[in-house]
Amino acid sequence: MGAVIGRSTGRRDSVSVFADPSMRSSSGASDTRTCRVCKKQFTVDENHPRACRFHPGPWMGAENSKHYGIGAKDSDFRSGVSYFHDCCDAESPDAPGCTLGPHVSYDD
Questions:
Q1: CA dist., res. 81 & res. 46, Å (int)
Q2: How far apart are CA 29 and CA 78, in angstroms?
Q3: Among 44, 51, 57, 68, which is disulfide-ready with 86 (CB 3.0 to 4.6 Å)?
Q4: Helix and strand numbers, DSSP H then E, in the chain
Q5: Do the Cβ atoms of 16 and 102 come closer than 8 Å?
Q6: What is the pLDDT of residues 16-56, one digit of tens each?
Q7: CA gap 35, 81 in Å, rounded
Q8: H-helix or E-strand containing 68?
Q9: CA atoms of 8 and 88, how far apart (whole Å)
Q10: d(CA 63, CA 73)
């Protein structure tokens, strides 16, 4: 197993699924699989080390004063809680992943 390259914090190990000949169907055609990380459909033939885009950190919330830092002025943030991806601070739940790796199927 190799580590995922990018901004990964080591919370996910990648598995090389595209080089395993047992993953191919007996007819030689590629099977369509679902990635357990990004939930997208992929074929073994089209999988590569940068095929899956994901966030290795959790989606979380923090009080704005903690999220934006102690030195922030009151006018720099609103009171309450901010939600963000812990790995890259993206503030949208639909933000594209900040880390790339190979797809990993549920069959692995």
A1: 41
A2: 55
A3: 57
A4: 1, 8
A5: yes
A6: 444 444 444 444 455 899 999 999 999 999 999 999 999 99
A7: 32
A8: helix 64-68
A9: 10
A10: 14
